[in-house]
């Protein structure tokens, strides 16, 4: 007699651990070798239920394939032997696509792993999600004894997962597993193997995580200290990017090249400045980094520091002799960048050190004051005016003064500062337009009111004969139309 799952009375008795009933059925001739529709035998069902009772895992179902995984997870060699003897598939996969050997490797159960291998477990099986082998899992979890066992049994020491193509040595280096790194190297692991996602070597991964002992070990074994990743960055670049001063110092002491440029023409010093890391900048300069090196925009470290608004780094670079008037691809100086960015403290520092306040950029001949006014930086505008900046300077693109730019962009506070300094209210640009004309077109009512209060000419026409009133009507700015018609 069998139910829909081909379970006989013997199966049911075994499932409920009814020992006396099982014995009676066997004495009556029940076939102990008969399998259900999944090929399981009554003995396996009994073992599974015993495992449930032992573990307290009430969710374990003998109809599913969890028994072998629970036995492996618990490191229960005896139960595993019975399950394998009952025909349990040694390479059965769980819901994550893991085999029992993977679970044993990750859990560090050496004896269980050995038993599975003796029963034919696939040593190179890969999980479903990332394609990790038992060796990769053992390494990632730091299970040194299992790593050695797997290597002894012939596991591929260069096995790569499907996700980013990392090898066992790569993972051991990142995780700081010194004993495993040493073992893998002794067994012939490629010391400069690159992953498939970033082209990182094991040394790069060790540097990324600040694994000093591993870094020393890899370098002693001949790792390439200047290996480049897909962006052309070396381990030193990585250490600088991570802000790891100790690791950067170690690499420099071990001979890392300090001037290696990545694909963006940035050297480690450029990266340290971008991060605003003064201590790192100081270290690199002490070790001989070129203070005038230029990146892909032809910016020097000083220009980059000024652009970032980092006063401490800017001061350090100036103290170390950086050229204050260095120019980039657009002929801009550090002062121009500081002014455009609204970095008051850096602007002040550069002025104190003698930076040319009237330096013009290359494309439109804009001065620091023009840039500050255009971008609405009130404090920097005030500072530049106090230091004598020419407030009537005109760019070569539109022939606009700083006041025209402030009015056009709606920066009322900046316009007020310029007017207080005596900026010419009726200055016309290349198209014959005044600051009032631009403020009206932009719908900047507060700026329009400010300009009118200071005597701006409402009837001033541009080269096309349009007055501020014309622009107000064109833009549909009714409130400004009313302002312009007020007596």
TrEMBL record:
Pfam family, one: Ank_2
Spans of repeat ANK: 5-37, 96-128, 130-162, 164-196, 198-230, 231-263, 268-296, 297-329, 330-362, 364-396, 398-430, 431-463
PROSITE patterns assigned to the protein according to its UniProt record, in alphabetical order: ANK_REP_REGION, ANK_REPEAT
Superkingdom in the source lineage: Eukaryota
Keyword annotations of the record: ANK repeat, Repeat
Residues that span the membrane, as ranges: none
Matching InterPro entries: Ankyrin-KH/SAM_domain (IPR051631), Ankyrin_rpt (IPR002110), Ankyrin_rpt-contain_sf (IPR036770)
Name this protein carries in UniProt: Ankyrin repeat-containing domain protein
């Amino acid at each position: 007699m069998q139910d829909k799952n081909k379970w006989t009375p013997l199966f049911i008795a075994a499932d409920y651990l009814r020992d006396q009933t099982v014995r009676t059925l066997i004495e009556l001739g029940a076939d102990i070798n008969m399998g259900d529709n999944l090929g399981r035998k009554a003995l396996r069902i009994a073992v599974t239920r015993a495992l449930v009772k032992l573990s307290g895992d009430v969710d374990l179902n003998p109809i599913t394939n969890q028994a072998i995984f629970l036995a492996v997870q618990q490191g229960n060699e005896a139960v595993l032997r019975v399950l394998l003897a009952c025909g349990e598939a040694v390479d059965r996969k769980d819901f994550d696509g893991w085999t029992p050997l993977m679970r044993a490797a990750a859990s560090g159960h050496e004896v269980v792993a050995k038993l599975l291998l003796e029963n034919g477990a696939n040593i190179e099986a890969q999980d479903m999600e990332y394609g990790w082998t038992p060796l990769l899992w053992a390494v990632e979890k730091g299970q040194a004894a299992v790593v050695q066992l797997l290597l002894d049994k012939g596991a591929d020491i260069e096995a790569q997962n499907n996700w980013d193509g990392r090898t066992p040595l790569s993972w051991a280096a990142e995780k700081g597993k010194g004993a495993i790194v040493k073992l893998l190297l002794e067994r012939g692991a490629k010391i400069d193997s690159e992953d498939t996602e970033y082209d990182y070597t094991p040394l790069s991964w060790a540097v990324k995580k600040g694994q000093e002992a591993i870094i020393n070990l890899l370098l002693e074994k001949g790792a390439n200290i200047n290996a480049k990743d897909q962006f052309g960055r070396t381990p030193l670049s990585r250490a600088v990017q991570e802000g790891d001063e100790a690791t950067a110092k170690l690499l420099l002491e071990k001979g890392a090249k300090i001037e290696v440029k990545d694909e963006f023409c940035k050297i480690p010093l450029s990266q340290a400045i971008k991060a605003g890391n003064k201590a790192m900048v100081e270290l690199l300069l002490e070790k001989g980094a070129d203070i005038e090196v230029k990146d892909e925009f032809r910016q020097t470290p000083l220009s980059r520091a000024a652009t970032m608004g980092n006063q401490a780094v800017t001061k350090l670079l100036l103290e170390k002799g950086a050229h204050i008037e260095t120019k980039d691809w657009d002929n801009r100086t550090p002062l121009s960048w500081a002014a455009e960015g609204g970095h008051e403290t850096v602007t002040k520092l550069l002025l104190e050190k003698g930076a040319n306040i009237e330096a013009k950029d290359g494309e439109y001949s804009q001065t620091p004051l023009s840039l500050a006014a255009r971008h609405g930086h009130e404090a920097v505008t005030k500072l530049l005016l106090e230091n004598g900046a020419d407030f009537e300077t005109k760019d070569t693109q539109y022939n606009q003064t700083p006041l025209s730019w402030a009015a056009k962009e709606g920066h009322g506070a900046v316009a007020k500062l310029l007017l207080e300094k005596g900026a010419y209210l009726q200055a016309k640009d290349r198209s014959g337009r005044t600051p009032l004309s631009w403020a009206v077109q932009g719908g900047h009512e507060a700026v329009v009111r400010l300009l009118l209060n200071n005597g701006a000419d409402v009837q001033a026409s541009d080269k096309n004969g349009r007055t501020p009133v014309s622009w107000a009507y064109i833009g549909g700015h009714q409130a400004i139309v009313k302002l312009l018609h007020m007596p």
